[in-house]
Specification:
Blueprint (H helix, E strand, L loop, with lengths): L8 H11 L26 H7 L11 E10 L20 H5 L3 E6 L2 E2 L13 E2 L2 H8 L4 E3 L9 H15 L3 E2 L1 E2 L2 H4 L3 E5 L2 E9 L5 H4 L7 E2 L5 H14 L2 E7 L10 H13 L3 E5 L7 E4 L2 E4 L4 E3 L8 E10 L2 E12 L5 E3 L2 H14 L12
Parallel strand pairs: 1-2, 1-15, 2-5, 3-4, 5-6, 9-11, 11-12, 12-14
Antiparallel strand pairs: 1-16, 7-10, 8-9, 13-14, 16-17, 17-18
Length: 369
Amino acid sequence: MKRRTARSSLAALTAIAVGVGLAGCAAGSTGPAPVWRGATLGPTSTATATATATATPKPNNAVEVRLAFAGDVHFTGRTLRLLDSPETAFGPITSMLRDADVTLLNLETAVTDRGTPQPKTYRFRAPKTAFAALRAAGVDAVSIANNHILDYGRQGLADTLDAAAEARYPVFGAGRDADAAYAPWLTTVRGLRIAVLGMSQVHDLAGSWRATDTRPGVAMAFDPARATAAVRSARERADLVIVFMHWGVEGNSCPSGEMKTFAGRLSEAGADIVVGTHAHTLLADGWLGPTYVHYGLGNFLWYGTSHSTDSGVLNLVVRERTVVDSRFVPATVSASGQPVPATGVGRQRILDTLATAQRCTGLAAKRPG
């Protein structure tokens, strides 16, 4: 069962205020990276500052916290009907999501029935019951820093944020302005203060979808000064800093040079864990100095039959700032769109695929020291 009682109630409530942000971008990553000059870092958001002003006991080095991460989730096409019964929407993999202390994934859809369709090939939206399904599955918060959260424009984004606030459900990685978009979701588990940020490195529509000081949108990796400042700020107020990225080349199981460069920047800024989604196929993991990186978690609750059906749940055990154990549990996206734990030959095939993919990550197989 999900162990929630050990968390700071203030941090949990503040997380809703901080996490209610905005996000989005379009479908591939093929164009040149946008360059935005003269970006201002801006002040720390009031909600975040309030949360961090409250003293939290430092964790005991012996205390271990279990984290779970999964990939892209939609509620459209075949997965829309799963919301007829939100409590069972994620199917048999639910117990695995509930078992961790903190479970995070990428919600790749606007939650709205309004807005203007954006000029892109694929557009996704879902009803408000999406948040009920996520909560029932034991998912504690979701990144909305992706290339679909603004599929129905800023109206769709505003509706998503309003629906999250109404459901008292934490989202992060986008916001009503840049301060909100780059602000972390904050939570505390048995004295361990955790900050989670979401960012996108998908090129399409990035210029018009990015959050600014006066415009809602997504926290983008293409503003490296602001992105790394957000990580450094989170580092000052948390024991463990996690960055949930949306990046990569669709269908490619190897990270691009752009991904590797930005992962390095995140590590230098103080990120302890970096996980990613977007490529619709599994990428692999490893160590970048003291930072644990998993470049891509693939599809999870998936609306169609395109791309890879390989999926799974990444389980990490952390002790203070250090990942002391990592385990990827393979799954397969079924005909219903639900991920089902893989067994036998299918399970081994996915593990073998990950072992092959690890060779192109440029990451160390073990933590240094």
